[in-house]
């Protein structure tokens, strides 16, 4: 099996049975969920969490493109 989620200059920080933590070139970290089902493993691209720079806020985006920010 090969999981192709890295871009040039990215680094894998951690791998567990549930996720892969990837430090991106810009310094942000993506927590990429791994799901195992009867067909094997796959990446849950709809639930990737990005840890970025900011002032202790949490943002999420709706399917319509509306950004919701919590302080």
Give an account of the 3D structure.
- This protein is mainly beta.
- Helices cover 0% and strands 48% of the residues.
- It has strands at residues 11-15, 19-23, 29-37, 40-43, 49-51, 58-61, 67-70.
- Strands 1, 2, 3, 4 and 5 form a 5-stranded antiparallel sheet that branches. The protein has a two-stranded antiparallel sheet with strand order 6-7.
- The N and C termini lie far apart (40 Å).
- The mean pLDDT is 92.
Summarize the helices and strands and which ones pair or pack:
Elements: E1 11-15, E2 19-23, E3 29-37, E4 40-43, E5 49-51, E6 58-61, E7 67-70
Antiparallel strand pairs: 1-2, 2-3, 3-4, 3-5, 6-7
Helix content: under 10%
DSSP strand tally: 7
Report the uncertain regions. none
Percent strand: over 45%
Instruction: Give the biggest sheet.
Output: 5 strands, antiparallel
Distance from first to last alpha carbon? 40 Å
CA radius of gyration is 14 Å
Order of helices and strands: EEEEEEE
Counted by DSSP, the helix tally is: 0
Instruction: Please state the average pLDDT score.
Output: 92
Structural class: mainly beta
Shape: globular
Short description:
By secondary structure, the chain is mainly β. The chain is 0% helix and 48% strand.
Features:
48% strand, 71 residues, mainly beta, single chain, globular, five-stranded antiparallel β-sheet
